[in-house]
Inverse folding.
């Protein structure tokens, strides 16, 4: 069973009540229909509320359990449970612990590229309906970071919302919101303050289903999460005075039921977010560039200097900022590089210019007229 913790600000969070069922975490009729064949195998459905190495805390149909994960030779993330996953659990027998034997199909998944040079992505959250990107108004705005987070959110299949936190520490929240809105077309941008309660009611009305809070350390995710939960269940900490960066008070991802329905998934602060196979996410994040590109003279226009480029024309007439296009190019290059890890042909195409330059330099150095 789940361990208990005396203090909401200890190193672990309080676990769900025994009265809660999968229905409280989003189990619905569609899930039930898809799970029906597994019931004949003496399996029960449950949702992972916290995942550790080899163990998961699960709200199962039979009650909350700590279940083991069956080792698998499959290296894909489909068989590795993540917080938010729906799983098939084999209940404990007389001399055995509960075991997760299958991860059910994910409707959505927030993925980022791993820091290692492998082709695998890290799943941050599964079966999410709303991605709330937290941006602190007490710090200078970093629009490139906002765009990166939105690309991640759009690619997941969930609905993104930008939540501007700590409005009470900003001299002009409205101007900041307008600036962020230009970098977030089609996304609702909300101004909030967990300290004063500003905007929290509006945010509560906007959020639905499974909500994940994403953002860097110090963005105020956990403090805002406590406001939404109605009590201090998430550990919070002060921002360091030396560099203005937040401390990692959230050490893992965990699901908690919201008082007005739905569940909240708090996440540790993200220092780096690499894109992984995020073509659709980038198209949504830079929707105006994607739309302008349809009017370019060439279908494969790179928007760097080609004649008849509608995107560059939009910059000249003031309808698009150079910063926005530069950010688009930067994230596109990163996404292409990530894709090259698994695509040998694409990797060869990316390597070709570098190899041609190397060959040219070698030939130049071998020339009798070369002078170092």
């Amino acid at each position: 069973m789940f361990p208990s913790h005396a203090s909401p600000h200890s190193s672990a969070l309080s676990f769900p009540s025994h009265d809660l069922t999968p229905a409280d975490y989003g189990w619905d009729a569609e899930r039930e229909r898809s799970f029906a064949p597994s019931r004949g195998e003496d399996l029960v459905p449950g949702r992972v509320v916290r995942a550790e190495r080899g163990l998961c805390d699960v709200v199962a149909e039979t009650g909350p359990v700590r279940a083991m994960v069956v080792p698998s030779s499959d290296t894909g993330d489909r068989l590795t449970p993540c917080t938010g996953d729906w799983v098939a659990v084999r209940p404990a027998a007389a001399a055995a612990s509960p075991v997760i034997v299958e991860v059910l199909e994910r409707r959505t998944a927030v993925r980022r590229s791993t820091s290692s040079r492998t082709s695998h992505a890290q799943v941050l959250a599964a079966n999410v309906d709303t991605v709330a990107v937290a941006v602190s108004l007490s710090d200078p705005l970093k629009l490139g970071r906002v765009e990166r987070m939105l690309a991640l959110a759009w690619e997941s299949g969930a609905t993104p919302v930008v939540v501007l936190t700590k409005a009470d520490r900003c001299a002009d929240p409205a101007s900041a919101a307008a600036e962020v809105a230009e970098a977030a077309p089609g996304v609702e941008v909300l101004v909030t303050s967990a300290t004063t309660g500003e905007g929290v009611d509006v945010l509560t009305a906007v959020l639905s289903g499974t909500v994940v809070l994403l953002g860097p350390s110090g963005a105020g995710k956990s403090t805002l999460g406590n406001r939404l939960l109605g009590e201090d269940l998430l550990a919070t900490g002060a921002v360091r005075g030396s560099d203005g960066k937040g401390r990692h008070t959230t050490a893992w991802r965990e699901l908690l039921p919201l008082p007005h329905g739905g569940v909240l998934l708090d996440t540790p602060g993200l220092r780096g977010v690499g894109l992984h196979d995020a073509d659709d996410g980038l198209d949504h994040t830079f929707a105006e560039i994607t739309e302008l590109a349809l009017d370019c003279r060439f279908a494969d226009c790179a928007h760097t200097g080609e004649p008849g480029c509608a995107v560059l024309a939009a910059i000249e007439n003031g309808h698009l900022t150079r910063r926005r296009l530069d950010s688009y190019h930067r994230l596109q290059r990163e996404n292409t590089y990530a894709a090259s890890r698994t695509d040998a042909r694409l990797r060869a195409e990316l390597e070709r210019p570098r190899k041609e330059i190397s060959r040219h330099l070698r030939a130049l150095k071998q020339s009798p007229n070369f002078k170092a």
Summary: The domain at 109-266 is CATH 3.40.50.300 (Rossmann fold). The chain has a mean pLDDT of 83. The two ends are 72 Å apart (CA to CA).
